Amino acid sequence: MTFNPNKPNVMYIDLNSCFASVEQQANPLLRHRPVAVVHSDAPYGCILAPSVEAKLWGVKTGMSLKEGQDKCPLLIARTADPPKYREVHHRFAALLSDYSSNPLAKSIDEFVLILPTGCNPVGVVQEIKSRIKSEIGDYLRVSVGISTNQNLAKLASGLHKPDGLDVIDQTNYLEIYEKIVLQDFCGINVRNEARLNRVGIFTPTQFYQASPQLLHSAFQSILGDYWYSRLRGYEVDDVTFQTRSFGQSYVLPHPMDRAEWYPIMAKLVSKAGRRMRQDGYSASATHISLHYSDHTSYKLSHKLKTSLQSEHDLIAAVNSLTPKSNKKVKKVAVTLFSIGHDDNQESLFIDKVKEKRLVAALDSLNTRYGEYTISYASLLGSVGHVKDAIAFGKI
Questions:
Q1: CB-based contact 21:28 (threshold 8 Å)
Q2: CATH top-level class for 172-240?
Q3: Every domain range in the chain assigned CATH 1.10.150
Q4: Are 141 and 21 in contact (CB under 8 A)?
Q5: Looking at residue 41, what is its pLDDT?
Q6: What is the pLDDT of residue 311?
Q7: 124 and 11 Cβ atoms separated by less than 8 Å
Q8: CB–CB of 143/163 below 8 Å?
């Protein structure tokens, strides 16, 4: 199979250093200075996003704030402000919809567009970049990759950050492959690289030249066939995977007894349940995991006879799994799984229609006036815990 001869029309757009750039856009005093957006401004708070300037000092996502400040003494920490980032995300989506009927959000800071046949992709990118600066923020920069499939378009978007623009097509793909390493491909992590190494593949060029049989041997699955096609510019990633669960976890600020951690557990269930309802699902199984201060743990799951949506029912279901132990807890995690779209099954004992209207009304009020404007009494005592956050790869 030769490389895809079609003209590249898949565009991958990445907002550079998203959270930090938005903070710098909002506050001009932070511009051109090393900034780190953190979950907490405590010394061991996790760095969620370093600015372009901070990255030049070696500051990376996942470091503690102290580690970042050791590398860059001038580092400025800003606590994450998720509503601000979501607002910029929605503005991006609205702008990009002028160029594609269905821009696909891959995460809070990444979009994929399929451009109409016959347009000039490079010209479109230049126009988009100009409009971003004039309509959304003059300090915001995006790196854009263009290719014949999503995987190679994403690879192209990362070749010249920040503010880059690169195209990968049948004229230059081998030249690109010779300049990168295996882990530059989205989907090739340390483990997959080791699998390739075991069959004698150590470079992207060798990866491209490998036969379908050799790649199948490396991955021991159909994934080898997918990579054979990806590397030749054919699309195999245009698939939407079904959500299988909704979960929340929280590391407690100090070991707590049941009276202290129970409201926090209820809040975790509430947040997971609201996300689940927003996506139109209900759950028929629940799970709880507790990590104790003595380094032991407790885990229990339960399959329900009916599917649940409301916070009241979900909190009660998870509560039924909690132990009666008085041991101090340092981490709580809850998961709602066995999910499916609501089948509108009526009940002989509960007015499901009335219950759904009540749940929808509560969600609507909290969306309009702020989270937990109205909440269940079981959440009392959770104020200040489980702050709003954007998980990686989410919106």
A1: no
A2: mainly alpha
A3: 172-240
A4: yes
A5: 81
A6: 85
A7: yes
A8: yes
Tokens of 370: 């702020």
Which single residue is written with the structure tokens 């995300």?
89
d(CA 194, CA 68) in angstroms, rounded, equals 30
For the chain, which ranges sit under pLDDT 70? Answer: 239-243, 342-352, 387-395
Sheet strands (E) in 242-310: 245-256, 281-292, 297-308
Q: Which two tokens stand for residue 256?
A: 């707590």
What single letter denotes the amino acid at residue 305? K
pTM of the model: 0.73
Q: Helix %, strand %, coil % for the chain, to 5?
A: 40, 20, 40
Q: What is the number of alpha carbons within 13 Å of residue 147 lying toward its C-beta?
A: 30
Give the span between the Cα atoms of 318 and 93, in whole angstroms. Answer: 36
- Residues of the chain within CATH 3.30.1490.100 domain(s) are 245-379
8 Å CB contact between 181 and 205: no
Distance, CA of 162 to chain centre: 20
pLDDT, position 388: 63
Q: Pairing state of beta strands 104-107 and 76-79?
A: unpaired
Give me the sign of the Cα torsion angle 154, 158, 159, 164. positive
Q: Which CATH architecture has domain 1-146?
A: 3-Layer(aba) Sandwich (3.40)
pLDDT reported for residue 301: 92
Neighbours of 127 (CB within 10 A): 13
Per-residue pLDDT at 85: 92
Query: Which bin fits 340, alpha (ψ -120 to 50), beta or left (φ > 0)?
Result: beta
Parts of the chain belonging to CATH 3.40.1170.60: 1-146
What does residue 247 show for φ and ψ, rounded to 5 degrees? -140, 160
- Is the Cβ–Cβ distance between 282 and 307 less than 8 Å? yes
Q: What class has domain 245-379?
A: alpha beta
Over the range 37-67, which residues count as b (16 or more CB within 10 Å of their CB) and which as e? bbeeeeeebbbbbbbbbbbebebebebbbeb
Long-range contacts of the stretch 98-103 (C-beta < 8 A, 24+): 99/124, 99/128
Q: Rounded to an integer, what distance in angstroms lies between the CA atom of residue 357 and that of residue 115?
A: 41
Torsion over CA: 306, 312, 318, 319 (sign): negative
CB 31 within 8 A of CB 137: no
Strands 10-15, 142-147: pairing kind: antiparallel
Q: Which two tokens stand for residue 374?
A: 């109205």
Query: Do 16 and 163 form a contact (C-beta atoms < 8 A)?
Result: yes
